[in-house]
Design a protein that fits this description.
Residues 283-311 are annotated as: Disordered. Residues 301-311 have a biased composition (Pro residues). This protein has helices at 15-50, 54-72, 77-86, 88-91, 94-114, 124-136, 145-148, 156-160, 178-186, 196-214, 223-246, 249-262, 269-280. 61% of the residues lie in helices and 0% in strands. With 311 residues, it is mainly α. The radius of gyration is 26 Å and the shape is flat. The protein folds into two domains: 21-186, no CATH class; 192-311, no CATH class. The protein contains 13 helices and no strands.
Length: 311
């Protein structure tokens, strides 16, 4: 057995010492992995059961809050009951129940990603599905957007089941981290000449969702007008720039030219013109070009505008 000797002089590890340490290290790692698997297994079972209904999700939420307040913070049961009375309106809100279930779904997906060696973009379709369903349920979730933007692993569910230590740099923390979900998980696989139509369609879905967040979920009366006048044109420009770099240079260039004509008074119009000029320079044309069906210089259909919330 490797002994700890006084530090009288420096010694090198023998091959036998190295082999023994590696063997012990492997056993330690196996034990740690087994504990993680067991913790994940308990959490997965609890979360899946909670997803069976709104009531089941709420019951698990209350169980987790009680565990943290009474057991871990050593508060009296009466304090927990008083907290429940104060939160009666929130706890009875259907939108809150739906938010709990979306958070649980994101936690399950997060654990799946943590257990996988695949690139995070592999899980883009499932992440996009959750995000799409959140916006389809936008009316009920209007008061829950702050909750849905919180870190899922740092939520009461994540803390109770020991998931708050998960740290995945490329994985979005919440199911409503719209920008990172699109930029890290969904759009990368579409940025190639063969998928520019899908890239543009996905961008349009993203813009529609950004519109809902800025209008339906905004308490600012002028939010919709500002989105249509300022944010929407900027997002449309970003979309065409992305499509240009992905390979549909002619199609994107035509849309960008029409965009500059339509939004000539936009505060960023000058910047867009400079960017467009740089894209048209020879050094920018490096991607394989996808020929559009409509010849350049003719009228091409522009993407549809963001629908007014409620339509």
């Amino acid at each position: 057995m490797l002994a700890i000797a006084p530090f009288a002089h420096a010694d090198s590890l023998s091959q036998a010492d190295r082999d023994m340490l590696l063997e012990k290290l492997e056993k330690i790692q196996e034990a740690a992995d087994a504990k993680t698997d067991a913790r994940f297994g308990v959490a997965i079972a609890a979360f899946r059961n909670a997803l069976t209904s709104d009531q089941a999700a709420l019951e698990l939420y209350l169980k987790c809050v009680e565990k943290q307040q009474v057991e871990e913070q050593h508060k009296k049961p009466q304090e927990f009951r008083e907290w429940k009375r104060r939160q009666e309106a929130q706890l009875g809100d259907v939108g809150f129940h739906h938010a709990l279930r979306f958070q649980l779904r994101w936690l399950l997906l997060t654990m799946q990603v943590a257990s996988s060696k695949k690139d995070v973009s592999t899980f883009g379709p499932e992440a996009g599905k959750i995000l799409d369903e959140i916006f389809l349920d936008a009316d009920k979730l209007a008061d829950q957007r702050g909750y849905l933007r919180q870190s899922a692993v740092g939520s009461v569910f994540g803390q109770t089941y020991g998931l708050d230590g998960l740290n995945m740099k490329e994985w979005p923390n919440s199911p409503l981290d719209t920008n990172n979900i699109y930029e890290r998980l969904i759009l990368p696989s579409l940025r190639n000449p063969e998928k520019t139509d899908a890239l543009r369609a996905t961008w349009m879905r993203r813009i529609q969702q950004e519109g809902i967040a800025a209008t339906t979920w905004s308490k600012d009366a002028g939010g919709q007008e500002r989105f249509q006048q300022d944010t929407y044109p900027e997002l449309m420009w970003q979309m065409e720039t992305d499509v240009f770099h992905a390979g549909d240079q002619k199609g994107a260039a035509l849309h960008m030219f029409q965009h500059l004509e339509k939004y000539a008074s936009h505060p960023k119009a000058s910047d867009w013109a400079k960017q467009f000029k740089e894209l048209l320079s020879p050094r920018a044309a490096t991607a394989k070009v996808k020929e559009p069906a409509t010849p350049f210089g003719t009228t091409a259909p522009t993407p549809p505008p963001v629908p007014t919330p409620g339509q």
